[in-house]
Amino acid sequence: MKKITYIILLSCLAFTVVLTSCKKSKEVELSQDGVGKSVKQVIYLKVVPTTEENELEVSWKNPDDDALIKAEVSFSPVAQGSAKSSPNPIVVNAAKNAEMKMNIMVPGHEKYTISVVTINSAGYRSEPVTMQATPYSPVAPDMTPVFLKRADTLMTALVKLYLDGKARDIWTSNYPFTDGYWDGAAVIWGHGGAFSGYAALKEAAEAYPVYKDKIARIYDDRLLKGIDQFRNTRNGKREAYAVYPGAGDERYYDDNIWVGIDMTDLYLLTKDVKYLTRAKLVWNFILAGTDNVMGGGVYWKEDGNSKNTCSTAPAAVFSAKLYLATNEQDYLNSAKSLYAWVKQTLQDPSDYLYWDNARLSDQSNPNSALVIARDKYSYNSGQPMQAAALLYKITGEQTYLNDAQNIAKSAYRKWFVPFNSYTLGESFRILDPGHVWFQAIMFRGFIELYKQDGNATYVRAYQKTMANAWLSSARNRSTNLINGDFRGGTTQNSWEILHEGACLEMLSRLALLEHEGLK
Asked: How many Cβ atoms sit within 10 Å of the Cβ of residue 81?
């Protein structure tokens, strides 16, 4: 992968550009032959403060666009009425798929919106991709997102209650502790739920050095070693993450996909190849769970006979993310085909939501009719929503965006209910009490859609839901664990790591959205 680094020093009146690969010219020659009138946007825009006062590091990946020649960077303060914007946009050479990075000096300590626009050889410009950030200042007020503080508090509680002093240094399933199989250890589903919460927290903390350093120092190696204990090669088959950390324990395709998605996200965040290696290990296992029986899809478990939404839709998400991480076409092809199968086979055309699974009516006859289990769970609609939004992001095909928006509207109607919050002093639609981990997975779909269409209705509903949960009696003040009913007013005597990890994930994702400017 190409890597191009630029150091940009700006002030209100002037700026200096030091480039390693281009020389400023008076005029850019633009050829229009065979070049379209649109240009793809950059992806993975990230803006974080450096340790230098009033300096921001801006990085992104250029789109896969043969006509791309330039990228334009500018900044402006978020506060109304301020004149401290870029004196001139910064224009740099840009090659397709290249990873770009630059440091910019901004005029003072306040929150800025950084914009990056791509330009093709015909002079056409993309829509801007933006992100907000505040530079470091030795005398700055605390700008840490409220939800990051909450997520950090919950993470500290989870480690203390479910991990410290426990056998094999892996997460236990319940608090208060209950002994059981494998000394009360959580299965990979619960362990993966906690790992997802950690991965989301690590991403949310990227722009906040105190939290970022704490996570890297205390959690990174420990939690990776913990989840790696679940890997096995049962019966000489492809390596994967098993239900329990034993050589003969069974493996589920959906359990592995959640781990693979987290590993891919961690690679995209850190560019550390150890995460990509684990993601590819999982993908290799998932390929063993696919065939042409029932026309495609992914089996739920090894030697199983059902193909499920919960294995096929997240496999589409997983492969789309692997494409974004590697730019390898096979992953994009898989994402498209998996999404097409689950939509055709398991989507309810009456409301766009998704049924649970399909199986053959006669297991001995691969051409027999399909039997559809028509249960509907929130995560089973959230993952097709996320897959569709990701495919729209990658391909720009409007059909995918329409699909995601249709799912979102129905999911919002089905899994949120009107609520008058005494705690927040306002009325809104809150998550209906249900399976908390399912709700966290559904949130991923709403976030991905919000990033594509800018409609904050659904993510704000999560924001208010989790604010109410944290501030109301839904949170146990002695442990900081959160009850399954986010409205408050109910009692709970035990808490699963699967659900608490899901709460950690939602708080962390809200922290990142808060950092990016969600009010």
From this structure: 5
Token reading at 10: 């700006």
d(CA 315, CA 321): 10
The sign of the CA dihedral 345, 346, 350, 353 is negative
Is the pLDDT higher at 238 or at 37? 238
Radius of gyration of the chain (CA): 24
Q: Which helix (H) or strand (E) holds 442?
A: helix 436-453
pLDDT above 70 for 360 = yes
| 3-state secondary structure at position 278 | helix
Structure tokens at 189: 């589903």
Per-residue HEC secondary structure of 339-367 comes to HHHHHHHHECCCCCCECCEEEECCCCCCC
In angstroms, rounded to a whole number, what is the distance separating the alpha carbons of residues 364 and 358?
15
Q: What is the pLDDT of residues 70-120, one digit of tens each?
A: 999 999 898 865 545 666 788 999 999 999 999 988 888 888 999 999 999
Q: Is residue 31 within 8 Å of residue 121, measured between CB atoms?
A: yes
Q: How far is CA 302 from CA 252, 306, 481, in A?
A: 6, 10, 34
**Which regions of 29-141 does DSSP assign to beta strands (E)?**
43-49, 55-61, 68-77, 90-93, 99-105, 112-120, 129-133
* Cβ contact 449:391 at 8 Å: no
Kind and range of the H or E element at 153?
A: helix 146-158
Pairwise CA distance, residues 395 & 404, whole Å: 14
Q: Residue 221 gets which letter from DSSP?
A: H
Instruction: Indicate if the alpha-carbon torsion angle 240, 243, 246, 248 is positive or negative.
Output: negative
Q: What is the dihedral of CA 166, 167, 173, 174, to 10 degrees?
A: -40
Q: Is 162 left (phi over 0), alpha (psi -120 to 50) or beta?
A: alpha
Contacts of 360 by beta carbon, 8 Å cutoff, 6+ apart: 293, 294, 305, 366, 368, 369, 370, 371
At 26 the pLDDT is 36
* Residue 307 and residue 358 in contact, taking contact as beta carbons nearer than 8 Å: yes
Q: What is the DSSP string of 401-423?
A: HHHHHHHHHHHHHHHEEEEEETT
Sequence-distant (6+) residues with CB within 8 A of 155 are 197, 198, 201, 219, 504
Question: According to the model, what pLDDT value does residue 6 have?
Answer: 38
> Length of the chain in residues, anyone?
519
**pLDDT for the residue 106:** 86
How far are the Cα atoms of 23, 79, 99, 136, 143 from residue 10, in angstroms, in the given order?
Answer: 18, 19, 22, 16, 23
pLDDT digits (tens, 9 = 90+) for 114-152: 999 999 998 899 999 999 998 887 776 778 999 999 999
